[in-house]
Design brief:
Helix content is 63%, strand content 12%. By secondary structure, the protein is an alpha+beta fold.
Length: 552
């Protein structure tokens, strides 16, 4: 097949996809336009009231696109054609989410949960509604292939267009720097957000049409990913044997690899659950539950090792849910059931843990608050509504108290600090904890790390070697010369400030980091990371800095 024929075939496929997913493709176009405008505003540093509105429209368009796809697949499953009603419902969803996210900062975890959670719920329902195209072949395999095809087309397009842009800029007409950057971003967004998604939608399996996944794609999964996955399982089993031999579990080493193994199992189960062409894989899926029992047991102990002393966090809570869903898939495979019902279970789990009080943000907060107050109550540190010191507090209880306080303050839940005596007691307990530690870390940032006031200065030099060794900072000026600055006294000043002001225990501070060396020289630092190594002879201070050297 020639390149021309491949292009024509791809164009016809996208045309057919538009007839099927016209509402979703229109909202995808809205998403691309919004992201393109935001890119232009970001590069040219345009900040106005409409930039926030465009960002809200982009988020709502993305959710509307996913909703429209799921709804179209749902109508197809019922044998109905309701393009007008589909468009109306999608517009309602778009408006609802536009209002939901309007006026909120995207760093707000609840806004992220409501948008990402809803999008994943719609996607899970859409996957449930897809029907098998051939006997023994699951529709998820076709979806996986559609994603791969969209990624390949997007990658080829971005490489081709970027090459053309570079050639134009180098050979014909030199583009202004910000315009050049904007065009590169637009090419990437056009390739993946617009063309890639269009190709993905056009490649989704359709009810009543034979769309068998290419044998080459299936062979790649079975001959490349499958052997690698078996190697990972062997390594996990050897790791379990090592744990039994030494009778100790290294902290933080097991959970991620076990979760990755469960993820890979779910991919093979969703894609090849009833495919009789791969008998060895079918036997593995059948007995996967028994094979995973030792790994799951060690993973549970590893998670408990972190949860018991440090409590639940967003990542740990999410990991527990993913493991529970993985176990559900193992049970389905053991019972030789279809994987399709798992998508409904997945949709319900996502809805519960993103859109209800059981969400992955609130539950860790509540458990950490409960840990903090339980330590205080159990150790008789609450007297008449005031927190008091307990000199007999065990180190393990102190660690629980401080870890809970640190988690809450890191996430700006600082109401507990208003309790009389709380800050003073935490500071004392933190001092005792630090006395047993070997190293302390502190982080300093300026209020606006993106702004450097250069008015009145003639030259600016980036600090390219940011490590401060023995209190000495060396700045390479780019012309073969260097300039050295002694920062020992300044670093000690920052350390004294940190130990005095670190009442919340986060070790993070925001303050001005300007050093006026003389009337013609200024170090404008944007970030300073301090590491303090304690030993019998005193302490060693090392620093990592970013910023610029300003000269008149």
């Amino acid at each position: 097949m020639s390149i021309k024929d491949m292009g024509q075939r791809l164009f016809r496929m996208v045309q057919d996809g538009y007839q099927r997913f016209r509402t979703a493709m229109i909202f995808d176009a809205v998403l691309f336009v919004c992201v393109g405008v935001l890119t232009y505003c970001q590069v040219y540093e345009i900040q106005d009231w409409y930039t926030e509105e465009i960002g809200c429209a982009a988020a709502a368009a993305a959710i509307g696109c996913i909703f429209a796809v799921a709804l179209r697949v749902f109508w197809e499953r019922r044998g109905q054609e309701r393009h007008g009603f589909e468009a109306l419902l999608t517009i309602v969803v778009f408006v609802f989410f536009f209002i939901l996210v309007q006026g909120h900062d995207w760093t707000d975890p609840y806004i992220l949960l409501k948008t990402a959670g809803s999008a994943l719920v719609f996607a899970s329902v859409g996957l449930y509604c897809l029907e098998p195209q051939n006997e023994g072949e699951e529709p998820v395999l076709a979806v996986f292939f559609a994603i791969s095809k969209a990624w390949l087309v997007g990658t080829l397009l971005i490489v081709s267009l970027s090459t053309c842009l570079t050639a134009f800029d180098s050979l014909l007409f030199s583009l202004e720097s910000r315009l050049h950057t904007t065009l590169y971003f637009l090419i990437a967004e056009f390739s993946f957000l617009f063309i890639g998604i269009q190709v993905f939608l056009a490649s989704l399996p359709e009810r009543g049409k034979d769309m068998e996944t290419p044998a080459l794609f299936r062979a790649l999964l079975m001959r490349v990913l499958w052997p690698v996955y078996l190697i990972l399982l062997v390594i996990l089993y050897l790791y379990v044997a090592k744990i039994i031999y030494v009778w100790a579990i290294p902290v933080g080493m097991m959970n991620w690899f076990a979760s990755l193994a469960l993820l890979a199992f779910s991919v093979f189960f969703f894609c090849f659950a009833n495919d009789a062409r791969y008998s060895l894989l079918q036997r593995f899926l059948r007995w996967g539950l028994l094979l995973f029992l030792p790994i799951l047991a060690v993973q549970a102990v590893a998670v408990w090792q972190r949860v018991e002393p440090y409590g639940l966090t967003v990542l740990r809570y999410t990991s527990i849910h993913c493991t529970i869903f993985g176990i559900f898939l193992l049970v389905l495979a053991f019972l030789r059931r279809s994987p399709r019902p798992a998508f409904l279970v997945l949709a319900l789990m996502i809805a519960a843990f993103t859109l209800t009080p059981l969400n992955i943000v609130d539950v860790p907060f509540r458990t950490q608050e409960a840990r903090l107050w339980s330590v205080l109550e159990e150790n008789d540190m609450l007297k008449g509504g005031e927190v008091v010191e307990n000199s007999d507090l065990l180190p393990s209880e102190r660690d629980k108290l401080l870890s809970a306080a640190e988690y809450l303050t890191d996430h700006k839940k600082t109401v507990f600090l208003e309790t009389p005596g709380m800050s003073e007691v935490l500071a004392k307990q933190r001092g005792k904890q630090k006395g047993a530690k070997y190293t302390e870390w502190f982080e300093f940032k300026t209020k606006n790390s993106k702004h450097i006031p250069v008015a009145g200065w003639q030259n600016a030099y980036l600090i390219g070697k940011p490590n401060v060794e023995n209190g000495m900072l060396v700045v390479d000026k780019g012309d073969g010369t260097q300039e050295k600055f002694e920062l020992s006294s300044y670093l000690k000043e920052l350390l004294e400030y940190a130990r005095t002001e670190d009442v919340t225990g986060t070790g993070k501070f925001t303050r001005e980091l300007r050093i006026d060396v003389d009337e013609n020289t200024c170090l404008w630092l944007q970030k300073v990371d301090l590491s303090v190594r304690n030993h019998k002879g005193g302490e060693d201070i090392t620093a990592h800095v970013t910023g610029v050297l300003l000269k008149r």
